[in-house]
Design goal:
Length: 461
Amino acid sequence: MAQSVLIVDDEPDIRELLDITLSRMGLETHSAATLAEARDLVASVAPDLCLTDMRLPDGNGISLVEYIQGEFSHIPVAMITAHGSVETAITALKAGAFDFISKPIELDNLRNLVSSALQLEGDTSAAEHAVDEELIGKAPAIQTLRKQIAKLARSQAPVHIHGESGSGKEVVARLIHNNGPRAAGAFVAVNCGAIPPELMESELFGHMKGSFTGASHDKVGLFQAAAGGTLFLDEVADLPLAMQVKLLRAIQEKSVRPVGASKEQSTDIRLLSATHKDLAAEVEAGRFRQDLYYRINVIDVSVPALRERLGDLPALTDNILRKIEGVDGQAGAKLDASALAALARYNFPGNVRELENMLERALALSDGTVITADDLQFSSSTPPPVAKTEPEEVATSSTEQPRGWVRDAYGDLEGYLEDIEREIISAALEECRWNKTATAKLLGVSFRSLRYRLQKLDLVD
């Protein structure tokens, strides 16, 4: 049985254009010219998708979005907006619209939107179960986050994820992607703070051969690489102001122009972003454009710090140990009561990422399968006191410049350390002719610890 689409627009020409285009896609169509007609048809024909204009003779499209969200939440609604009506599009997305498309309607963009919307499952229980499996914990903030993810996975609205470093912002972004209609597409993550400003435009939008010194071949940008999928801009607050202008245009026009190209190329991505900074404060300080802030912050998601959900530590540690050991069932290694008590008294400035590193180190150093507080490498049986909210000032000379390696680590310390670790392990593997057992012995780590590091650093399967 063919899937059906409800077209709501008071202009006969628009209704006819949409009817012809959708019919050629093998879809059944129903049309309405008013809000009242649309409500009746939603109830009587139960369409798989609704396309509605913003302005209707007896109301507006936002009212229809809210009505369908309240009474028929399984039906996605896409808004047709006037060209350049960014505020209207944002209002529609906040009200629960799946996506929007601007007039004059580009038929390729319309087909992409409709195809994505019709891939949504009416029954959300599978997605909710998948989120439960990946997002560990029972803290109220985590339960709220799960519900948000399951709902946002059904939308194409830009989402901004904020939380402290190491709290799991990319995990949330991947869950939104993996449980939505773009799951089969690529998930492309980029740390905006790790790209040199002079290479930013080329990295995001690509470049043409000969467009600048060193451009020996055409390069596909990250927007194009994420086509049909999701582009995740981590640490988006670190984008230079000049680049923010170009990003805003790419989002609004749904197209990019590679460096050196004469024409723009259409893009089909879902945009997710994240930062550990207060983005509103960055706008106030003039470091982040207000118009871009409103465009990427359509939906705001907060990821709690680990110290705000210490009751989840037993479940989290068990899950992390299973991943480190590569065990599908119950983890072979366990934390004893002393270790759990020590962790519960710590405030985890590095959040879940710090916990993962701590357990990886403890597992590599422990003698057996039971990890104690001593294995966690605290300075004593009691972990360090909770860190002060405001760090103490350190006197430095204003003329002193950071050493080269310190300067290189700015903005992406985690990535910098991973690069060093990758070089050391790669050299050891070469020396041992890729014998993992010999490599683990050479490095002085356990075999399971080496295997975990190889997977983490994408060195081998």
